[in-house]
Amino acid sequence: MERKVILTEGAPAPIGPYSQGIAVGDFVFCSGQIPLDPATNALVEGDIRVQTTRVLDNLEAVLAAAGSTLDQAVKITVYLKDLADFGALNQVFTERFKAAPPARAVVQVAALPKNALIEVDLIALRVK
User: Fold this and answer.
1) Of 33, 44, 93, 120, which one has the fewest beta carbons inside 10 Å?
2) 73: which strand partners?
């Protein structure tokens, strides 16, 4: 199987030695995204709803570059700085994943890069 690196200007440039995503066979593996503006690579200002929306927009861009969509996500891992943001996170996810939400895990972490409130990685099916 061919391993294809996914790189798009629609998502922030990696801030470390990793790819935005890797497509292999029928799957796309997206690296963790924090709420960076792709135009500036600066952290977006705002609460967990604003930051979650930016993260999902970034992941959506990586998936589009790989020939997939958020609707094809099968597994998501969410890293939250504060589990008190769980309810607001769920509100944003309910808006973005209406029909069949993917499997998901949410964990609280001590800190995230650039002092972000959230980081999300995911695995999705590629649309043929």
Assistant:
1) 44
2) 124
